[in-house]
Predict the 3D structure of the following.
Amino acid sequence: MQIIRTVLWVILLIGLLAFSFFNWSPVEVKIWNNMVLETKVPALVIVSFLLGLVPTWLLHRGVKWRLKRRINALEGAARSQQVTPAMPAAGQSSESSGLTSSDTSADI
């Protein structure tokens, strides 16, 4: 899975570099009536990409962290709820504890 993720990031980087090379021209971005930002197209695309990626990635990490904590808490509760089978005392045999030989043998 790691190799697929690496290949996808490399393809994305190559695509971004090719886009930047062929679209290196200035653009004016009108923010408010009297405020204009002049920047290059690749910078605008990268900032827009990061504005969409970072909040989504942070949300994903937060949900993953919360679910991992919840799973660990539930596993801990399940472990503490498990009942261990009672073993007969050392001096008692299976007949004195009420078990017969057919109860103690495993049927296959």
About this structure: The mean pLDDT is 85. The radius of gyration is 32 Å. The longest strand covers residues 26-32.
